[in-house]
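Workshop exercise sheet. Pairs work together: one partner reads the sequence aloud, the other fills in the structure field after running the prediction. Swap roles for the next sheet.
Pair: D.N. / O.F.
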Amino acid sequence: MPATGPHGDPEVLRALEAAVRRGRNVAMLAAAGSGHERVFGTAIESACEAGAGLQALVLVPTRDAALRVGAGAAAVLSDSDLAVLVWPPVAGGADGGQAEVLIGRPIALLKEIRGGRMQTAGVKLICIDGADHALRLGEWPAAEALLDVLGGEAQKVVASGSFENDLADLVERHVARPKRWPEELFVDDGSAGGTAGDLWCGAAAREEERIDLLAAALGDASGVDGAASLVLCTTQSEAERIRAGLHARGVSVVEGSAEEGAPSAGVVVTTEPAHMEGELAIVARWGPPDDIEAYQALPAAGRRIAIVDSLHLQQLRLLARRARWRVRLLGGGPPAEQDAVQRFRETVQSRLQAGDLSAELLLLRPLLEENSTTDVATALAALLRERGAIEARAETGPGKPAARGPATPGEVQAVLPAWTKIFVNVGKRDGAGPGDIVGAITGETGAAGGQIGLIELRASFTLVDVDAEIADRVIQGLSGTQIKGRTVSARRAKEGI
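Structure field:
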């Protein structure tokens, strides 16, 4: 189901619909959960004509993103005769030559175009979803090549979770005079300072886990005298599921509505606007963060909570920046009640929620192309726990009791390296790739492959995570050497770079 705000459409669509229908270029700071896919759908509906051949490309960083964008755009295009196809199609699927719109990874589309298997003379719209992820996953060079070949007078609609550093330069070069949204984030210089309060967030991939987070937060507030809590949902069926889930977890769910006022205690789960009078311990909003007005309408009293799919956490952070709220993550239950297996699961879950894993996805892509994601994740979990157990046993030494069973997450963390970020003044413009950087580090310093972490290759420089214990050795070993004919200068990276 597409994300919709209190006005029936997501805020991003209400803000940009007129601009995209006029054919204007657009750059939107929007991530999954904003409903920005419907902006793509509106641009496609306005620019394309059924039966006129390929007219629009939607560039995405992954196939999962392609399916999500296709589903979101379908909310706008359901009444049109336009053929929208995710590329490449499944075996035996539709012929790309019959579609007016293709959604796919830039490198896959570029391969077909360069091979002469796609007629692109009629392309007049190029949409880019997750431009920041495309850059980190190494898809941007292909996207830039497509823009160079097909851009011309074509309309461009770009969505990204950030527009910083090299990406800002790339977008400025290819997207002429775009309408930027939300404007306040593009011009925000931080001068306003301060925060307008906290927005607590519970983020998880599965609904059952999200209900767990909500129930724990509501349980913590149950001792507040004379204070009820309110949970706002987007649909009645959603509200019914949450009522049942909270009740099963021992939370006191009571009848009530926003119009009747707050009960003396318990939790009200409703789809009505949050205008309950009286003292409230918690006001929680359940669902995608697609509308800032829906959050700003929450009563100021009480603890403000957002419960979202983990995929939507970046969009929630963007929304919080606009409202000048500080996002704080809800935790799990008391550690004493969690066994080693549960702690391991929550360690992985917290890493999933903590930030962008695009570079790791790039590393794993060949495996994911040959195996199911479940098999790959299971194998990595086994290796991680086995490594922790082996290291723990090695540290016990002669005469000491050996570690028994798989290592706990704390033990695993103890044996994995702490990373230090190194700045290297060689980048893409010098013709360097990740292999050149890794080769230089291992060749000049003798570092092991496991002591080299994330590599962020940018236009004029590279950021490399290395084991903190060898950081000084890497800096000294690289400085003065040459990579792709350029003399290397290496140093510890500044914070925030």
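Discussion prompt: DSSP finds 18 helices and 19 strands in the chain. What would you look at next?
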